[in-house]
């Protein structure tokens, strides 16, 4: 509140207060909510953006009674806030309050539970119970980031379906996830409307990007999970995926056997390591999915039908 004292907050009219709230950080808004009931109502009227919010386990304390943190990063003001006081229901309520305003759109929502204990399961059960009890609370986020141990997999599909599919642009799955679960995810509206994917099958700390390493066995299912999904969705030009195998070599020819179109190699100027490039028609007229196979993995990109070289190489050269 110190940055607002010069305004004599209690003397401002509601219009002025709203302008101040719009320019205030997430932490300042939390403090303003405590001033009065009317201020609380005003703060909740202003949508929140440019933050990342999530739940993460206590990395220093893994016990039966350890509680996950609710964590918030305000990107504009570069502020971080976290707490695990009270019970799970209190933190879940604070999380849901952000999305009670339907105009709120945050950058990223993440769930970070990598330990192999079962503490995350009761938490996700409580989270879904609260979300089911408040169906108007839809999670509005550009990025869904799941970094959880296999014990939490049973909740993955239900949690993803609580996100607004129209605003979701990126899905990150960084954990131990079964083939069956990935196939189920690929049938959701959230997955179909997303333009970027990060899929890894082992824990890794730090920022993910679109060039991720996966087990070679997963590549065998790339046709079903990625290519088919891209071909049947109305995706923008330059939407792409990259899957690199976690070994020096894999049998890329096995992937060719999965294609439901004649295997035809097309010419696209790219790396010398490329062994096969396949073009797929898409549901959207004038766009094609171009997929490259190499000894190191699979990558695909949505291109304009008449500008394949330009679109494909622009995307992957920029990523490099």
Descriptive notes:
- This protein has 320 residues and is α/β, with parallel strands linked by helices.
- The chain has 3 domains: 46 residues, no CATH class; 162 residues, no CATH class; 109 residues, no CATH class.
- The chain is 32% helix and 23% strand.
- It contains 12 helices and 12 strands.
- α1 crosses α3.
- The longest helix is centred in the middle third of the chain and has 14 residues.
- It is elongated, with a radius of gyration of 22 Å.
- The two termini are 44 Å apart.
- What is the average per-residue confidence, as pLDDT, rounded to a whole number? 79
Biggest sheet descriptor: 7 strands, mixed
Task: Kindly report the spatial arrangement of strands forming the biggest sheet.
Answer: 3-2-1-4-5-6-7
Classify the beta-strand content into a percent band.
Answer: 15-25%
Separation, N- and C-terminal Cα atoms: 44 Å
Low-confidence stretches: 201-213
Number of separate helices: 12
User: What fraction, in percent, of the residue positions are helical?
Assistant: 25-40%
When the domains are counted, the total is 3
Q: Looking at the structure, what is the overall shape? A: elongated
Structural class: alpha/beta
Please write the string of helix (H) and strand (E) elements. HHHEEEHEHEHEHHEEHHEHEEEH
Instruction: Write down the Rg.
Output: 22 Å
């Amino acid at each position: 509140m110190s940055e607002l004292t010069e305004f004599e907050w209690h003397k401002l009219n509601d219009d002025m207060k709203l302008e101040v709230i719009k320019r205030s950080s997430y932490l300042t808004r939390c403090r303003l909510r405590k001033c009065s009931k009317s201020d609380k109502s005003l703060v909740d009227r202003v949508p929140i953006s440019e933050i990342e919010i999530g739940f993460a386990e206590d990395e220093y304390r893994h016990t039966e009674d350890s509680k996950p943190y609710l964590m918030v990063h305000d990107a504009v003001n570069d502020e971080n806030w976290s707490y695990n006081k009270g019970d799970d229901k209190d933190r879940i309520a604070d999380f849901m309050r952000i999305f009670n305003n339907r105009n709120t759109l945050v950058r990223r929502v993440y769930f970070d539970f990598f330990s192999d204990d079962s503490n995350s399961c009761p938490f996700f059960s409580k989270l879904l119970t609260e979300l089911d009890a408040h169906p108007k609370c839809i999670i509005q986020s550009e990025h869904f980031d799941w970094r959880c141990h296999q014990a939490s997999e049973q909740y993955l599909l239900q949690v993803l379906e609580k996100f607004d599919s129209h605003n979701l642009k990126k899905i990150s799955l960084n954990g131990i996830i079964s083939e069956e679960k990935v196939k189920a995810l690929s049938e959701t509206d959230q997955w179909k409307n997303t333009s970027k994917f990060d899929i890894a099958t082992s824990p890794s700390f730090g920022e993910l990007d679109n060039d991720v390493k996966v087990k070679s066995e997963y590549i065998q299912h790339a046709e079903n999970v990625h290519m088919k999904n891209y071909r049947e969705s109305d995706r923008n030009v330059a939407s792409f995926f990259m899957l690199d195998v976690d070994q020096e070599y894999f049998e890329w020819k096995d992937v060719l056997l999965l294609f439901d179109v004649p295997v035809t190699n097309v010419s696209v100027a790219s790396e010398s390591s490329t062994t096969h490039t396949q073009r797929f028609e898409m549901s959207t007229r004038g766009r094609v999915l171009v997929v490259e196979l190499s000894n190191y993995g699979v990558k695909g990109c949505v291109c304009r039908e008449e500008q394949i070289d330009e679109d494909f190489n622009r995307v992957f050269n920029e990523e490099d």
